[in-house]
Design brief:
Helix content of chain A: 25-40%
Strand content of chain A: 5-15%
Protein name (chain A): Acetolactate synthase
Low-confidence stretches of chain B: none
Largest sheet of chain A: 6 strands, parallel
GO molecular function, one term (chain A): flavin adenine dinucleotide binding
CATH architecture of the largest domain in chain A: 3-Layer(aba) Sandwich
Number of strands of chain A: 19
Number of domains of chain B: 2
Low-confidence stretches of chain A: none
CATH class of the largest domain in chain A: Alpha Beta
Strand content of chain B: 35-45%
CATH superfamily of the largest domain in chain A: Thiamin diphosphate (ThDP)-binding fold, Pyr/PP domains
Enzyme class (chain A): transferase
Structural class of chain A: alpha/beta
Order of helices and strands of chain B: EHEEHEEHEEHEE
Shape of chain A: globular
Radius of gyration of chain B: 18 Å
Mean pLDDT of chain B: 94
Structural class of chain B: alpha+beta
Domain Thiamine pyrophosphate enzyme central (chain A): 214-347
Strand order of the largest sheet of chain A: 3-2-4-5-7-6
Number of helices of chain B: 4
Oligomer: heterodimer
Cofactor (chain A): Mg(2+); thiamine diphosphate
Distance between the termini of chain B: 27 Å
Largest interface: A-B, 18 and 20 residues
Largest sheet of chain B: 5 strands, antiparallel
CATH topology of the largest domain in chain A: Rossmann fold
């Protein structure tokens, strides 16, 4: 107790120290402003245009910076930190190539509505526009993939800009905000006055829903015979999982959660149908296609979810709850639009909602579908199956790990065979589908959740896109457990080339990849390899027990495909079932 | 159904705002026919008027996307109400002394004016809606148009709204 109040007191003292109005450099303002925003870890990489900023860090022990080995690693780490904690992720890079190396990470965060504040240096204001050394118009380059951006030309604007950036990034529909700081601005001195308020006339996200619209939804639920909920990442981002649970248990409406919505609702719950779409459950897809009422809660009708748009949910009245009005009606015509924060909307709705009484037959039907068509694969005693590996990882982590994935087959298997029950447990690039995201995002997730087990599931392709960050894990003893499902091939591309391009396997062979055990060891990370179930379990358990970072390479069957699969251009009930038939 | 839309956008007078707005139109597949930007009734805010072609669904999507730009304060679908829409055109035409009386006749009919006379050319200035300018340009073509510059449409809703 006394220890706790002691820390609280020191925290207050720190805030007082940081907010002290005095004449300091732009760089010091930046660091202090970040601390005042509650930032406890920044991921970054120095360079010429941010030398003043890094100089201000020197000997400033309040500020925690993690040096990655590539700017892309820094921003994916910041992203993993943000997705797993709900706080704003922050990264810093220098001008020119440093800034452009962030572009993929910015787009990744933008597509999945992840709050980031991205800080870049730029050449001095006098050099802007002259094609100076390491100059790039990063504000212009990233305009289509940022929620907002700033080029700070006056050091006096810095505190306000940083405060606004955090506000914009983490309210409304969240997203990345870029702050570009020319070198002379980070060097200039001015009186630091911390910004406390935000005045943005053009930015007022609608949080509270229109009550009439909620009433319409409640009436629609009462009348529906075949209602379903389609829940997306918005439910997690608004912290609405408790309200969602209440809403579902009260209305007894079957629920499907999208890839980014996994964890918003317990996967094992009898009303949960798994995730929908291209590699989703037979039950979720069939239910969508037969529903007479579809309530979309914080999802955006992405094409990987809807399949062929014109044949999507053909019988359903559509209700769409979203904080971003631009998402409503964008892809799917919507009868009942509800603009608002998911949590706020559900709080209103829970109080009004009743059990969907006309849906008993439907609920029974869904139970029958679930029982007859679960995810299935043909296990093998001679070869290691990736699905088995994911299930084993689930079992040995008791389903309580934070799992980050890369993109491709292993990502879908992780979604299929690691049932998530808690929000912010799955960190995955859904919208942009960014290879190279899986491993560095785990570093950020671990930094934000030092007491949780963080598992990063990768393929042998994506792992090689950001493998250099193993150094960061080793040096800082960040105990991420990296699983590499190594099928020696670009698996998802192989799958499409097999099924859609008549076995014409073009440039997918990853032979010549490094020995991942040696690669790990070269960085000082513990490495394991497994080629059968017994080795796999033993290696994985040892990796989990190991106090530091570990890499486990699982050599899995090359020809394994992800099923079910909805071929692009088909409606989502046109599923190839493969082994799971 | 594709038709012409006139949208007025009140924006912060900050660097890069024009780029944010015009970039959005391009990305979302909406072709800008004309764009005008200038001061508005409020210091610190500019008013853009954009004429663009597209279907109604796209227009609605564009309006919603525009509101997502932090520097956009207000979006008004001017074209959906009775409006006054005007543009200014400068037309430099061949005008040998012998042809001038005829040209002046056209200029007068359109309530346009001659703002420059050279040895064998004239600059005509016309203000009006786009149809009027189109018609006038059409009539002046036979004399030989050397240069044409149109400002693009600026517009306002009529009455007290």
């Amino acid at each position: 107790m006394s220890a706790q109040s002691a820390t609280l007191k020191s925290k207050e003292e720190l805030i007082e120290k940081w907010s002290k109005p005095e004449v300091i450099t732009g760089s010091e303002m930046l660091l202090r402003s970040l601390l005042l925003e509650g930032v406890d870890c920044v991921f970054g990489y120095p360079g010429g245009a941010v030398l003043f900023i890094y100089d201000a860090m020197y000997g400033f022990s309040d500020f925690n910076h993690l040096l990655t080995r590539h700017e892309q690693g820094a921003i994916h780490a910041a992203d993993g930190y943000a997705r797993s904690t709900g706080k704003v992720g922050v990264c810093i890079a220098t001008s020119g190539p440093g800034a452009t190396n962030l572009v993929t990470g910015i787009a990744t965060a933008y597509m999945d509505s992840v709050p980031l504040v991205v800080i870049t240096g730029n050449v001095a204001t006098s050099l802007i526009g002259t094609d100076a050394f390491q100059e790039a118009d990063i504000v212009g380059i990233t305009m289509p993939i940022t929620k907002h951006s700033y080029l700070v030309r006056d050091v006096n604007d810095l505190p306000r800009v940083i405060h606004e950036a955090f506000h914009i990034a983490n309210t409304g529909r969240k997203g990345p905000v870029l702050i570009d700081i020319p070198k002379d601005v980070s060097a200039a001195k001015a009186l630091f006055q911390p910004a406390k308020e935000v005045h943005l006339r053009g930015y007022n996200p609608t949080v509270q829903p229109n009550r009439n619209q909620v009433d319409k939804m409640i009436r629609a639920i009462e009348e529906a015979e075949r209602p379903i909920l389609l829940v997306g990442g918005g439910a997690i981002y608004s912290g609405a999982h408790e309200e969602l649970y209440e809403f579902v248990t009260k209305t007894q409406i079957p629920i499907t959660t999208t890839l980014l919505g996994l964890g918003a609702f317990p996967t094992g719950h009898e009303l949960h149908m798994g995730f929908p779409g291209m590699h989703g459950t037979w039950t979720a897809n069939t239910a969508i296609q037969n529903a007479d009422l579809l309530i979309n809660i914080g999802a955006r009708f992405d094409d990987r979810v809807t399949g062929k748009l014109s044949g999507f949910a053909p019988m359903a009245k559509i209700v769409h709850i979203d904080i971003d009005p631009a998402e409503i009606g964008k892809n799917v015509p919507t009868e009942i639009p509800i603009v608002g924060d998911v949590k706020a909307v559900l709080q209103v709705a829970v109080a009004l909602a009743k059990r969907a009484d006309k849906a008993d037959v439907w609920r029974a039907q869904i139970q029958a579908w679930k029982a007859s068509k679960p995810f299935k694969y043909a296990d093998s005693e001679t070869e290691l199956k990736p699905q088995w590996v994911v299930s084993m990882i689930h079992e040995t982590t008791k389903g309580e790990a934070i799992v980050t994935t890369d993109v491709g087959q292993h990502q879908m298997w992780a979604a299929q065979y690691y049932p998530f029950n808690q929000p912010r447990s799955l960190v995955t690039s859904g919208g942009l589908g960014t290879m190279g995201f899986g491993f560095p995002s785990a570093i950020g997730a671990q930094m934000g959740n030092p007491d949780r087990t963080v598992v990063s599931i990768n393929g042998d392709g994506g792992m090689q896109m950001c493998a250099q960050e193993l150094a960061v894990c080793a040096i800082n003893n960040i105990p991420v457990k990296v699983a590499i499902l190594n099928n020696q091939v670009l698996g998802m591309v192989r799958q499409w080339q097999e099924l859609i391009y008549d076995n014409r396997y073009s440039h997918i062979d990853l032979a010549g990849s490094p020995d991942f055990v040696k690669l790990a060891e070269a960085y000082g990370v513990k490495g394991f390899r497994a080629t059968n179930k017994e080795e796999a379990r033993r290696a994985w358990e040892e990796a989990l027990k190991h106090p530091g970072p570990a890499v486990v390479e699982f050599v899995v069957r090359k020809e394994e495909n992800v099923f079910p699969m909805v071929p692009q251009g088909s409606t989502i009930d046109q599923m190839l079932m493969g082994d799971s038939e | 159904m594709n038709r012409k839309h006139t949208i007025a956008i009140l924006v912060n007078d900050h660097p890069g705002v024009l780029q944010r707005v015009s970039g959005l139109f391009g990305r979302r597949g909406f072709n800008i026919e004309s764009i005008t930007v200038g001061a508005s009734e409020e210091p610190g805010l500019s008013r853009m008027v954009i004429v663009a072609g597209g279907d109604d669904h796209t227009l609605e999507q564009i309006q919603k996307q525009l509101y997502k730009i932090i520097d956009v304060i207000k979006v008004i679908d001017v074209g959906s109400s009775p409006m006054v829409a005007r543009e200014l055109g400068l037309i430099k035409i061949n005008a040998e002394p012998a042809a001038r009386p005829e040209i002046l006749g056209i200029v007068e009919t359109f309530r346009a004016s001659v703002v420059d006379i050279g040895a064998n050319s004239m600059i005509v200035q016309a203000v009006g809606d786009s149809d009027k300018l189109d018609a006038m340009v059409e009539l002046l073509k036979p004399y030989g148009i050397r240069e044409l510059s149109r400002t693009g449409v600026t517009a306002m809703i009529r009455g007290g709204r």
